[in-house]
Amino acid sequence: MIALQQLHKTYGKGAVAVQALRDVNLAVNAGEFIAMMGPSGSGKSTCMNILGFLDTPSGGHYRFQDSKVETLSRNQRALLRRHFIGFVFQGFNLLARTTALENVELPLIYRRMPRTERHAKARAALAAVGLEGREHHTPAELSGGQQQRVAIARALVTDPTLLLADEPTGNLDSARGHEIMALLTRLNRERGLTIVMVTHEADIAAYARRVVHFRDGHIQNEVRNG
Predict the structure, then answer these.
(1) Parallel, antiparallel, or unpaired: how do β-strands 33-37 and 210-215 relate?
(2) pTM for this structure?
């Protein structure tokens, strides 16, 4: 699904230039669950932003499915992001005064999907994450773990082929964090959903099948779990 070859990213110029990524080579197969780890400034978040078309590399090659990403326009990258990628963030990013159902429907509104169809898809996505009966609750009426489940449902509702999760358990206590990881693991196994996750917690990374360790912009090593 994904191939990065000799990818590098530099911020700034001259004496203040910072190399965030240096000659990164990474392959991600469809259906994999990968965790990216490393200290602050190691390059893992920059790599995830490039994978999700939220940032562009300074050089090297990025192939997503059959597309050479470095040759695409901004609008073309936005279309790929909208149709193939779901995002889950540490901070949930839910609209505070909007119900769970309405939060999940948002990506479908941007696609101009008819109201009845998007209601049905949003309800199905909430059911898939165990939130039947919570459709009309606002974020303030939900626990942190439930809010993250809403965020995952919102990412799933467009039927993405790739889910990018940036510290998905970072704002949760240990028990709720492991519940979210159990959910992501189930989605990976049952749906064949490809997941790439950034985390700094070894026990969370242990849920992934492969752990990629970044340091100083390089991939230091890779470890397979199980």
Answers:
(1) parallel
(2) 0.94
